[in-house]
Amino acid sequence: MRSPEAMTTLFRSTGRKVTPQRQRIFHVLHGNERHPTAEGVYADIIGDMPTVSLRTVYQTLAELTELGEINKIDLGTGSARFDPNVEAHHHLVCDDCGAIRDVTANTTEIRVPTRQRGGFRVEETEVVFRGRCRDCLATQRTGE
Q1: N or C: which terminus of the chain carries fewer CB neighbours within 10 A?
Q2: Which domains, from first to last, does the chain contain?
Q3: Other residues' Cβ atoms within 10 Å of the Cβ of residue 141
Q4: How far is residue 52's CA from residue 43's CA, in Å, rounded to a whole number?
Q5: With 0-12 CB in 10 A as exposed, 13-18 as middle and 19+ as buried, what is 136?
Q6: Is a pLDDT exceeding 70 seen at residue 144?
Q7: Which residues, at least 6 apart from 10, have a Cβ–Cβ distance to it below 8 Å?
Q8: Which residues contact 135 (CB under 8 A, 6 or more apart)?
Q9: Do the bridges between strand 81-83 and strand 90-94 make them parallel or antiparallel, or are there none, so unpaired?
Q10: N- to C-terminal Cα distance for the chain?
Q11: Higher model confidence: residue 77 or residue 33?
């Protein structure tokens, strides 16, 4: 995702409203590697900006997705997550705590056999690696 300043310029140039709440959303997302939910973004903002609404967060995330500045992803964690990293990558997902991390892996060898495609054209591939993160493994070992 571009810098918050660049996002402000982009929103204005496309006729979208730029409010202090939206600018705060841009700041929360910029460089965010946690893949937050809309509710997570809202929780990060509401403490110091009580005038933000969850509706504003959802609308801003939808517009950022529409503009291609973030990706809306569903990794089976119960809620849509938002990823400011729009470069090609894959994900590690912890089955215990739901933490998500970006991972770069070569998937050029993954192919759907032609006879199984049934006319379906594959345009992109995403691989999700599932398991347990370091913190959950450590907790499991100590029995806590």
Answers
A1: C
A2: 4-73 (1.10.10.10), 87-142 (3.30.1490.190)
A3: 8
A4: 10
A5: middle
A6: no
A7: 2, 67, 69
A8: 97, 99
A9: unpaired
A10: 38
A11: 33
Phi, then psi, of 2 in degrees rounded to 5: -65, 170
Q: How far apart are CA 86 and CA 72, in angstroms?
A: 10
Residue 69 near residue 1, CB atoms below 8 Å: yes
How do 81-83 and 71-73 pair as beta strands?
antiparallel
Report residue 115 as tokens.
């006879």
Assign 102 to helix, strand or coil.
Answer: strand
Q: Which residues contact 19 (CB under 8 A, 6 or more apart)?
A: 56
Which regions of 32-138 does DSSP assign to beta strands (E)?
71-73, 81-83, 90-94, 100-103, 128-131
- Tokens (6 digits) for 48: 């110091």
Backbone angles phi, psi at 17, to 5 degrees: -70, 140
